[in-house]
């Protein structure tokens, strides 16, 4: 793994992003923001799963008015997602949000950006320039490629779109900036982030946009986000899935844990099963995973299908269960500590976990 890119640290609420701060996990609500109760409830659940920044859609004035009570009811920084109408950004700032996300593809007029900066700067509210491959703006400068031209590689067009908006913000003496360059195509996304990482000092928010349903979307996101993190690029991440947002948070932490970048909650180790397995290991592993979901202990738990090899194959697990026919062995760090009946597998293993 390469040394992490040094970026300018900024504060989003009480969370530091960039610099040497840990990679931050972000998600976005799937509720109608105008439904304050539903949105607040979903954010509270995401907080339980470890979400550290939350973004909400602000499609109209009614949604903007809902931001203030939502902000008062939650415990993590609130980011307003703004498209098309810059006045919604101004309303969100008045409501007390901790951050803004603007899409340069539909809010890029200098006078509109200037009005947003004038309101954001005294409040110390950062702006994320969220470039999406599917909604690129036309560039105003004559010395840069036309973003609508297919002759210029998409990754380069995305970078130029971001840089033009960065330069505009800098000209307004504003540097509380975070940047994202998202595409569905993983190689395009990786290339765009690699290019811009060399051209500006601001924190980078990573993600693969419209990644899809959990099975394929988590894989696609793990590839794109994981490769960039391995290259030392990235300060915040969101796994965008067509699913309950808590699945995004869970997947994000699995990416970070897989790269040894963050310790957050338990890690489940389970064997793929084979002809030696004499229990419903899949069902057992799923039940253990569900039981571990909201724990904040940074421990490794193993569920293995073979009594003979289980403890050895998962000897670095803090606690584990190796299943045999009718009985199983509870082990710690590879050493068997007791045996239990099959009917007690789940209860016994979770009891050991709680005792750590």
The share of residues in helices is 25-40%
Give the CATH architecture of the largest domain: Alpha-Beta Barrel
Indicate how many domains the architecture comprises: 2
Determine and state the CATH class of the largest domain: Alpha Beta
Biggest sheet features: 8 strands, parallel
Give a verbal description of the structure.
It is a single chain. By secondary structure, this protein is α/β, with parallel strands linked by helices. It folds into two domains: 10-258, Alpha-Beta Barrel (TIM Barrel); 267-355, Sulfite Reductase Hemoprotein, domain 1, CATH 3.30.413.10. It contains eleven helices and 15 strands. It has helices spanning 36-48, 61-73, 86-95, 110-120, 154-171, 186-197, 214-230, 245-258, 281-292, 310-313, 345-355, and strands at 10-12, 15-17, 24-28, 53-57, 78-82, 99-102, 127-132, 177-182, 205-206, 236-237, 267-270, 300-304, 319-323, 327-332, 335-341. The strands form three sheets. It has an eight-stranded parallel beta sheet with strand order 8-7-6-5-4-3-10-9. Strands 11-12-13-14-15 form a five-stranded mixed beta sheet. The chain has a two-stranded antiparallel sheet with strand order 1-2. The longest helix is centred in the middle third of the chain and has 18 residues, at 154-171.
């Amino acid at each position: 793994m390469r040394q992490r890119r040094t970026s300018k640290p900024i504060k989003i609420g009480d969370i530091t992003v960039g610099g040497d701060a840990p990679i931050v996990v972000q998600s976005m609500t799937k509720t109608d923001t105008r439904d304050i109760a539903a949105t607040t409830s979903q954010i509270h659940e995401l907080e339980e799963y470890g979400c550290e920044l939350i973004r909400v859609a602000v499609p109209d004035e009614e949604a903007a008015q809902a931001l203030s009570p939502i902000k008062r009811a939650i415990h993590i920084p609130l980011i307003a997602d703004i498209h098309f109408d810059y006045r919604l950004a101004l309303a969100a700032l008045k409501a007390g949000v901790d951050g803004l996300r603007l899409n340069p593809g539909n809010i890029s007029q200098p006078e509109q950006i200037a009005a947003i900066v004038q309101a954001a700067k005294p409040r110390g509210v950062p702006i994320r320039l969220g470039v999406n491959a599917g909604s690129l703006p036309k560039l105003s400068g004559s010395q840069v490629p036309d973003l609508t031209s297919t002759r210029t590689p998409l990754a380069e067009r995305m970078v130029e779109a971001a840089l033009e908006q960065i330069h505009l913000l800098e000209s307004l003496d504003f540097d509380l900036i975070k940047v994202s360059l998202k595409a569905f195509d993983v190689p395009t996304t990786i290339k765009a982030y690699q290019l811009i990482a060399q051209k500006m000092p601001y924190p980078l928010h990573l993600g693969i946009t419209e990644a899809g349903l959990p099975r394929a979307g988590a894989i696609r996101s793990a590839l794109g986000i994981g490769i960039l993190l391995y290259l030392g690029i990235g300060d915040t991440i969101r796994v965008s899935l067509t699913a309950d947002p808590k699945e995004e948070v869970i997947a994000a932490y699995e990416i970070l844990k897989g790269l040894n970048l963050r310790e957050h909650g338990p890690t489940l180790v389970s064997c793929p099963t084979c002809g030696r397995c004499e229990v419903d290991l899949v069902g057992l592993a799923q039940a253990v995973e569900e039981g571990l979901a909201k724990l904040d202990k940074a421990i490794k738990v193993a569920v293995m299908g073979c009594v003979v090899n289980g403890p050895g194959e998962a000897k670095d697990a803090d606690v584990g269960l190796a299943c045999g026919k009718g009985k199983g062995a509870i082990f710690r760090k590879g050493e068997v500590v007791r045996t239990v009946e099959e009917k007690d597998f789940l209860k016994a293993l979770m009891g050991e976990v709680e005792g750590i």
